[in-house]
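Re-run with default settings, no changes from the original entry. Doing this only to confirm the output is reproducible before filing.
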Amino acid sequence: QVQLVESGGGSVQAGGSLRLSCIAPGYSYVYSRYCIAWFRQAPGKEREGVAAIDSSGMTSYADSVKGRFTISKDNTKNTLYLQMNSLKPEDTAMYYCAADPWWGGLAAVRYNYWGQGTQVTVSS
C-alpha cells in the first residue's frame, strides 16, 4: 500500500505563491514508475484534477490552472511538487496527491493511492 504525504499548504493573499510537496516514504519507485497527480476539493464541490505527470515527465493540466501552476518531480529526492503562482481565491481547497501505476490523467477515479491532503487558502 503506497502512502503519500503532502505538505506546503497555507494561507496566502491573492496573487501570491505556494509550493506543495508530496513524498512517498519507503516507495521511491513511485516517482520513476507511476503516474502522480494533484487534485483539489473545495467545500461542497467535487474533487477535481489539477495537474498530472507520468513516469516520462509528460504533464497534463486543468484549464483553470494552466500558465499559473507547474507540476514537477525530483526522482532523486522522491518528491512531487506543485508550484502555484498568481493564486486566486477560487484556488482555495484541500489539495491531494495521488498516484497509480497507470496513466490516470485528471480523473480521480483512476487513482488508487491518495494522501491526506494539505489545505490551501487564498484570501482576496
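The radius of gyration is 13 Å. The helical segments are 29-33.
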